[in-house]
From TrEMBL:
N-terminal signal peptide: 1-19
Organism placement in taxonomy: Eukaryota, Metazoa, Chordata, Craniata, Vertebrata
Alphabetized CDD domains for the sequence: Peptidase_M14NE-CP-C_like
Record Gene3D superfamilies: Carboxypeptidase-like, regulatory domain, Zn peptidases
The keyword Ribosomal protein is assigned to this record: no
Cofactor(s) needed by this chain: Zn(2+)
The protein's name: Carboxypeptidase M-like isoform X1
UniProt source species: Cottoperca gobio (Frogmouth)
Family designation: Belongs to the peptidase M14 family.
Length: 471
């Protein structure tokens, strides 16, 4: 074959690959699609794995943004996760379409896509449970393939902040599933700000908490978090931007949902869920989006279901720009990790802390808020901020906090704290039975293995293209 012919064939295949069919791709096809996409768009995409499933299939995440392979100070990290229940498959199709849409929009200089990718780093995990997907049948209602390869429901396998320290230690000794370990490691590796987890079997946007220990969080049958106002807003953004979710249709078997939103616990309590874990332990606000009554909709309905969800998927990403963001600097002007940044009236179980870049992100509705910043060796700083609505212009309000040293008698500054584990925090406030000072021990595997594909992806993508040419 002449090299010109080969080149033309390659170009042809790359063009074909740029329109994604509306059908259920196998895990292997999905992997190939992501590899090809990354190979042809290395400037705005970055493919990485957060670890293997039980049978060793990689949990691929595609990151999109102007700096897709690393964090940029001031650019919030957003994520979507789908197919955690292997037989709830619409989310996986929609997230692949979303990837395709964002990349195509960017390549065509469409403002909406440029704005998203210019302001946000979007991470997409189309399947958190590839083994369950392989085992599922195409039934609307039943749950074959819901669990992972070991038959474990991954949305019950996370540490539960309400379950008490004893229970946590017990769970640690039991096996935490590979897919859950991978996600816990992922949450430690990036400071995510906002997230949604896509499910099927209902049509509703559900928000934390899912769990409770019967404490003061229980209000009128709901388990209410300190950021309830923000969560309700986020859920309504999804349901009202969606073609029909806001009408509150109940899929025949449960009660109707006002505005198409619900508190998780109020709908039905569950422990070990992923959304509470994200919020309590990783300071990432996460929603559980139930996006179709039928868990495995017929393939010919996929284009219409995409049209119902497209606007809401994009509008929800934009909400990552609510509130305030910035850095905390110590007395010598250096950004500091683990400074506690609290908002008056919002006593989070684990107080929000600055990340390794000294950054904080705090999603808030417009209004005046009193912030308190605490860091060892420094005076407690309190400032009131007038917070505007950020999503319209793709940026939260920017505000840095400048701490001042407490002078010591010896004239030396006090020791900085060591880089404490991200999941360790101060529990003297709030509910004393919570466990946020408890460090989660990951099972045997220890740290999650991470493969990155930026450079290698180009080569492998071409190999994949060539392989598909051969047959
Ligand atoms: C998009 O804009 C860039 C720079 O302005 C230009 O080079 C490119 O040709 C444009 N692409 C399309 C598809 O219009
Ligand atoms: C990209 O972001 C910068 C600020 O970070 C802004 O000045 C610029 O207008 C943005 N471009 C687009 C296309 O949104
Ligand atoms: C916030 O405070 C400013 C004065 O600093 C005031 O003008 C404004 O009305 C307040 N906004 C709200 C929502 O209370
Ligand atoms: C924990 O919080 C309490 C009350 O706000 C405070 O007095 C104490 O210094 C904090 N401890 C740490 C280690 O941050
Ligand atoms: C948190 O845990 C550390 C060590 O595990 C312990 O020294 C500290 O006293 C605990 N803090 C609280 C507030 O319980
Ligand atoms: Zn589900």
């Amino acid at each position: 074959m002449s090299s010109l012919l080969l080149f033309l064939l390659l170009l042809f295949v790359l063009t074909l690959a740029s329109t994604l069919e509306f059908r259920y791709h196998t895990n292997r096809e999905m992997e190939q699609y992501l590899l090809q996409l990354t190979a042809s768009n290395p400037d705005i995409t970055h493919l990485y794995s957060i670890g293997p499933s039980v049978t060793g299939q990689q949990l691929w995440v595609l990151a999109l943004g102007l700096s897709p392979s690393r964090h940029t100070v001031g650019i919030p990290e957003f994520k979507y996760v789908a197919n955690m229940h292997g037989n709830e498959v619409l989310g996986r199709v929609l997230l692949l379409q979303l990837i395709d849409d964002l990349v195509r929009g960017y390549r065509n200089n469409e403002t909406w896509s440029l704005q998203v990718l210019n302001s946000t780093r979007v991470h997409i995990l189309p399947t958190m449970n590839p083994d369950g997907f392989d085992a599922s049948n195409t039934d609307c209602m039943y749950s074959q393939g819901r669990g992972n390869y070991n038959g474990i429901d991954l949305n019950r396998n996370f540490p539960d902040a309400f379950a008490g320290l004893r229970r946590q230690q017990q769970l640690d000794e039991e096996k935490r599933e590979a897919e859950v370990r991978a996600v816990i490691g992922w949450l430690r590796s990036e400071s995510f700000v906002l997230s949604a987890n896509l499910h099927g079997g209902a049509l509703v946007a559900s928000y934390p908490y899912d769990s409770s220990n019967g404490g003061k969080e229980l209000v009128g049958g709901a388990s209410i978090s300190p950021d309830d106002d923000v969560f309700i807003h986020l859920a309504k953004v999804y349901s009202h931007s969606h073609g029909s979710m806001h009408r509150g249709y109940h899929c025949g078997d449960s009660r109707p949902f006002q505005d198409g939103v619900t508190n998780g616990y109020q709908w039905y309590p569950l422990t070990g869920g992923m959304q509470d874990y994200n919020y309590v332990w990783a300071q990432c606000l996460e929603l559980t989006l139930e996006i179709s009554c039928c868990k495995f909709p017929p393939a010919n309905q996929l284009p219409a279901l995409w049209m119902e969800n497209r606007k809401s998927l994009l509008a929800f990403i934009q909400q990552v720009h609510l509130g305030v963001k910035g850095r905390v600097f110590d007395g010598s002007g250096v950004p500091v990790q683990n400074a506690v940044v609290e908002v008056k009236g919002r006593s989070n179980m684990c107080p929000f802390r600055t990340d390794q870049h000294g950054e904080y992100y705090r999603l808030l509705l417009p209004g005046n808020y009193s912030f308190t910043v605490t860091y060892p060796g420094h005076k407690v700083l309190t400032e009131t901020l007038n917070v505007p609505h950020g999503p319209d212009h793709y940026s939260a309000m920017k505000h840095d906090f400048m701490l001042r040293l407490i002078p010591t008698t010896t004239g030396r500054t006090q020791a900085r704290p060591t880089n404490a584990n991200h999941n360790q925090a101060n529990i003297t406030k709030g509910n004393p039975s919570t466990t946020c000072n408890y460090t989660i021990h990951l099972d045997s595997g220890g740290d999650v293995s991470r493969c990155t594909w930026t450079g290698l992806g180009v080569g492998l993508g071409l190999v994949a293209v060539l392989r598909s040419l051969i047959g």
